Amino acid sequence: RAKSDGRGTFRFFEPAMDLQMQTRRIMEQDLRKALPAGEFELHYQPVVNLASKEISGFEALIRWNHPTKGMISPAAFIPLAEEIGFIVPMGEWVLRKACATAAQWPDNFHVAVNISAIQFRSPGLIQVIVGALAASGLAPTRLEIEITESVLLHNKEATLALLHQLRALGIRIAMDDFGTGYSSLTYLQSFPFDKIKIDRSFVKNITENSSSLNIVRAVAALANGMGMTATAEGVETAEQLHSIASEGCTEMQGFLFSRPLPAAEIERQFLSGRGTRGAQGRII
Ligand code: C2E
Ligand code: MG
Ligand code: MG
Ligand code: MG
Fold first, then answer.
1. Where in the numbering of this chain does the EAL domain appear (predicted)?
2. 114 lines ligand 1 (CB under 6 A)
3. How far, in Å, CA of 196 to CA of 222, rounded?
4. Based on CB atoms within 10 Å of each CB, which residue in 6, 104, 107, 146 is the most buried?
5. Looking at ligand 1, which atom is closest to the CA of residue 148?
6. What gap in Å lies between CA 87 and CA 219, rounded to an integer?
7. Under a CB-based contact definition with an 8 Å cutoff, are residues 203 and 179 in contact?
C-alpha cells in the first residue's frame, strides 16, 4: 500500500521493503542462535587424484540444519553471515570442527577449509588456525586453506604476509573458483599458492564448448608451470572426466565421484577398510 510521506509524494515500495528487512532480521537472529544450538554441520567431499585414482583429501562444506526450514545451503546464508560479521565465529567453528574430524582420518588424507575474505581479514586468524591445529593434534601439512580471488583485492601487502605466514607453518593454500573473479595473472606470480581450483563453470561446458576446454588446458598448464597443482571442480559426468583427464589437472572433485557427505558417511564409505572403496580410498 502506497503511503504519503507528508510532502505530497508517495512511497510505493515500503511494505515490500519492510517484509524484506523483517525476513533478514529473523534470519540474522536465527544465524546467531545456530552456533550455540549446534545447528551447523560439516559435510565432506572427496578430492580425487587423477593419476593414482585415490582420494587425496576432503573439502569441508558447511550446512545449516535450521529447526523449521530444514537443511540450508551455504549460498543462502554466507552472504548475510559475512555482512553481519558472523562469518568470523562461524568460520572458527568450521576450522576447529574440520581439524578435529580430519585428525581421526588416516594421515594421508588432507582437509580443505574455505575461508571467506571477511574472515581472512579478521584480526587473529593465525591464532585461530594455530589453535584449531593444536586442539585437534592435526599436522599443519594436512590442512589446506581455500581462498577466493576477492581476498587478493584488499590490502595486498597484509594478505601476502599472512599467506607466507600460513605457508611457513606448513599449511597449503588453494585459490578457489579460479577464473570467476577479478584477479589478473600477476596475482599468481606474486602470491604463494600451492593449488588452483578451476571453477566448475568451465568444467560444466567442457564437452560442448571448445573455449572452456581451452581455458581448463591453459589454466592447468599455467599452474603446473608455476609449480602449483590444478584441481578441476564440479566434475559430474564421465565425458567431462575424459575430457579433463589429458589436460594437466592433478586432482578432481565433483558429483561423479561423490557428493559432500556427513563425516560418518565418509568414514563408512571411504575410510573404514570394510567400506565399498577400500582402505586406500581408491574411488575410480
Ligand atoms: P566452493 O568452495 O567452491 O565449494 C564447492 C561447491 O560446489 C559446493 O557447494 C559443492 O557441494 C559443489 N559441488 C561439488 N561438486 C559438484 C558438482 O559436481 N556439481 C555441482 N553442481 N556442484 C558441485 P556448497 O557446499 O553449496 O558450497 C557453496 C559455496 O559456499 C562454497 O563453494 C564456498 O564458497 C562456500 N562455503 C561452503 N562451506 C563454507 C565454509 O565452511 N566457510 C566458508 N567461508 N564458505 C563456505
Ligand atoms: Mg572451496
Ligand atoms: Mg570452488
Ligand atoms: Mg564456489
1. 24-274
2. yes
3. 10
4. 146
5. 34
6. 30
7. no
